Amino acid sequence: MIGVTRSEVTEWLESYYDAWRRSDPGAASSLFTADAIYSESPYEQSWPDGKRMTGRQQIAEYWRYVTIDLSRFIDGGFDLWAVEGEKAFARWWADAEILCEGYWVDAEGILRLTFVDRLDGQLVCSELLEWNPTIPESHHHRETHQTDQ
Question: Is the pTM of this model over 0.90?
Answer without folding.
Answer: no
